[in-house]
Amino acid sequence: AQTVTQSQPEMSVQEAETVTLSCTYDTSESDYYLFWYKQPPSRQMILVIRQEAYKQQNATENRFSVNFQKAAKSFSLKISDSQLGDAAMYFCAYRRVDFGNEKLTFGTGTRLTIIP
Amino acid sequence: NAGVMQNPRHLVRRRGQEARLRCSPMKGHSHVYWYRQLPEEGLKFMVYLQKENIIDESGMPKERFSAEFPKEGPSILRIQQVVRGDSAAYFCASSPSTGGNLHEQYFGPGTRLTVT
């Protein structure tokens, strides 16, 4: 079974600085998808960024980028120029590619605090 | 274009009562997923449904829990004879298609169930 591990329960960063959230996963599959979701106090799950495992290029969405290391099964999220609105729980998630296995497997999350 | 709708947003039940949680997917989406989030934990997959079919229920507890997605109307997650351990946030997500393609799961705002 696939597992997703987030080893940092809490992180904090000064406003405007850069922070990196860690995620590792375990799978025997060669093709899969990885995601970072943000959950603010409203509890709404918001997709931040996604990565297809067959793509070597790291995904980027504005201030958010990932460092995808397939051999190491590592998928970290870098947030640049941190803003107060980035404060939230961040969840790493994995999904298989094949039909009938679209369920997301989530890590336990990292609570990110932004210090003004 | 309305997003995924869930109701009620908050539900309080006494031990032994039944809880019914509803999810209306986004327009044009025919696939629904239910996840449960216990306090201070990540989301855990429960069940994946298409119209009138359960595709994957590997995350559903064997007893008291059931889910349906009828041809007409919302998807329903039903919990019979609730216990305090059922207190959690229940999230619904929908997607437009499957087949191994990368299609984002769009999450609803969740239903917070409290069992007293």
Helix content of chain A: under 10%
Question: What's the pLDDT, averaged over the residues of chain B?
Answer: 91
How many distinct beta strands of chain A?
12
Helical coverage of chain B, percent range: under 10%
Total helices of chain B: the number is 0
Poorly predicted parts of chain A: none
The shape of chain A, in one word, is globular
Largest sheet of chain A: 6 strands, mixed
SSE string of chain A, helix = H, strand = E? EEEEEEEEEEEE
- In total, how many beta strands of chain B? 11
List SSEs of chain B in N-to-C order: EEEEEEEEEEE
Radius of gyration of chain B: 14 Å
- H/I helix tally of chain A: 0
Short summary:
Chain A is an all-beta fold and 116 residues long.
What this model shows, in words?
The complex is a heterodimer of chains A (116) and B (116). Chain A has no helices and 12 strands. With 116 residues, chain A is mostly beta strands. Chain A is globular and about 45 Å long. The model of chain A has no long low-confidence stretch (mean pLDDT 93). Chain B is mostly beta strands and 116 residues long. Chain B is 0% helix and 48% strand. Chain B has strands spanning 5-7, 10-13, 19-24, 31-37, 43-50, 53-56, 65-68, 75-79, 88-95, 106-107, 111-115. Chain A binds chain B through residues 4, 33, 42-47, 50, 52, 91, 97-109, and chain B through 31, 33, 35, 41-45, 48, 55-56, 58-59, 89, 91, 93, 95, 98-100, 102, 104-105, 107, 109-110, 112.
